[in-house]
Amino acid sequence: xxxxxxxxxxxxxxxxxxxxxxxxxxxxxxxxxxxxxxxxxxxxxxxxxxxxxxxxxxxxxxxxxxxxxxxxxxxxxxxxxxxxxxxxxxxxxxxxxxxxxxxxxxxxxxxxxxxxxxxxxxxxxxxxxxxxxxxxxxxxxxxxxxxxxxxxxxxxxxxxxxxxxxxxxxxxxxxxxxxxxxxxxxxxxxxxxxxxxxxxxxxxxxxxxxxxxxxxxxxxxxxxxxxxxxxxxxxxxxxxxxxxxxxxxxxxxxxxxxxxxxxxxxxxxxxxxxxxxxxxxxxxxxxxxxxxxxxxxxxxxxxxxxxxxxxxxxxxxxxxxxxxxxxxxxxxxxxxxxxxxxxxxxxxxxxxxxxxxxxxxxxxxxxxxxxxxxxxxxxxxxxxxxxxxxxxxxxxxxx
Length: 399
Fold this sequence. Notes:
Layout: H1 2-34, H2 38-49, H3 58-80, H4 87-108, H5 122-130, H6 134-145, H7 149-161, H8 173-176, H9 180-193, H10 197-202, H11 204-207, H12 214-227, H13 231-244, H14 251-261, H15 265-278, H16 283-295, H17 299-312, H18 317-337, H19 341-364, H20 369-382, H21 386-397
């Protein structure tokens, strides 16, 4: 008896809620059927779903979807007729369509009390959404071009994530959609622009399959790893990028710098040689090799390359600097191991040969005092050139 009374009381309390809910749904359906106040219909259903007690009510989700879909179709029609319409609203509608039916699919796949799953909507809803999936990608491109990277990322993320949603399990998206890697590259680019490591890395394996943009993918990955202090991954990305595209301008200077900093001269020289295999007339690559040779103490070879560069372009300032430093380094090294009169003559000859290179570099790059001043100081000192020595000395001591 008590149990019956309690059930009756519960039913009396619950009926007004059910009636109010039904009234809201009926009103929303009326709006949808008329094609008016669609945004109100959407809002009414969203408010019902804010109540946790309603979130498993499939009928509310279906009405919500119908309201959003009707807005999407109206927008499509207006754009087709070249009528004024907010394009972004169209893309927002399609994104909400996907999120709504993906959530409903989760409810649809919930096992019953006997552990059985009886899917009522999946096949129909998957086919319906797949017809509009391209507009997720288009929405991402639209927002990316406006530099709205956070929103653009969200579109690309939703587009790519379809392949991992049970709703689309039978669509074979990964094998059928050849644009997935490009969408992943664009998602990665948006994450990089946002300086969001998680977003940048989320789809990077898929993005690496986009062969047209693979070098850029590896550049953004390398920068992300560098900023995160992940040196091994940074170096690996540089190596991958250089091996795939040696002449891509991002990789080789940083790879040379990394090898120099970690005292790997053989690896640095291999990079320089690989560059020259690709283009043996490039001034940039020849200069890069001269830098490596200077760093590893192969001064005579460095000077030969610098002379080649100067013969081609006599205004290439850094070629003069490298040649001048190579000659001064030869002098310093010889001075360390021998004090004989013959060697003293050769040491002076090295300083004498360094002088015109360094003076020419100074003339071409007067603002680079930190590069030429100390070198010229040593040259003038060792050649007993008092006037020139005093002038450079004043420059060095000038505050």
